[in-house]
From TrEMBL:
Gene3D superfamilies: P-loop containing nucleotide triphosphate hydrolases. InterPro entries: P-loop_NTPase. The keyword GTP-binding applies. It holds the Pfam family Roc. Keywords: GTP-binding, Nucleotide-binding. Belongs to the small GTPase superfamily. Rab family. This is Intraflagellar transport protein 22 homolog isoform X1.
Length: 149
């Protein structure tokens, strides 16, 4: 079976755990903020991706990483053998927009991952400002695929 390791990284409180729970259909929903300590690994199987419907299956590991930089010593272990990196941030917070350069630099550029292996997600929480349509990201972030939610 095809195995895919995807990292969710980015600033604290960006919504990484909420998105990872949603994708893995975990029953944990939106609620009180519980900072991720180091990493949580969520697994799920998708029978459609990577196959022709004849039984080929894909097993995803979502590595939901804590955004606190005190976990930096764990980063080499987290990024090992990753196939893709999703950088989640809140476009309404200038500090987040600044911080994602660091996340991209360590988790993508320094690992020699391709730009096509990285996805930025501008995750706007209800009530927070910022217009994700008018994001002016500096190079090389402006060349990456950007998802808005
Ligand atoms: N209402 C609402 N709340 C959200 C949404 N996304 C995230 N939140 C809230 O924002 C807070 C932080 O979300 P998390 O997903 O835990 O943030 P995180 O990026 O995993 O943070 P760290 O683990 O510290 O890196 C939580 O209280 C969530 O419930 C959303 O789309 N809507
Ligand atoms: Mg988290």
């Amino acid at each position: 079976m095809l195995k895919v390791k995807i990292l969710f990284v980015g600033p604290s409180e960006a919504g990484k755990s909420v998105l990872a729970n949603f994708l893995s259909e975990s029953t944990e929903g939106i609620g009180t903020y519980i900072p991720t300590q180091g990493v949580r690994i969520l697994e799920y199987e998708n029978p459609q991706i990577g196959g022709n419907g004849k039984g080929a299956r894909c097993r995803f590991e979502l590595w939901d990483c804590g955004g606190d930089q005190k976990f930096e010593t764990c980063w080499p272990a987290l990024v090992k053998d990753a196939h893709g990196v999703v950088v989640v941030f809140n476009p309404g917070l200038p500090s987040h927009v600044k911080e994602i350069e660091m996340w991209h630099s360590y988790f993508v550029q320094q690992q020699q991952l391709l730009e096509s292996q990285c996805l930025l997600i501008a995750h706007r929480k209800p009530g927070s400002g910022g217009d994700p349509e008018n994001l002016n990201l500096p190079s090389p972030l402006n060349r990456l695929q950007l998802g808005r939610m």
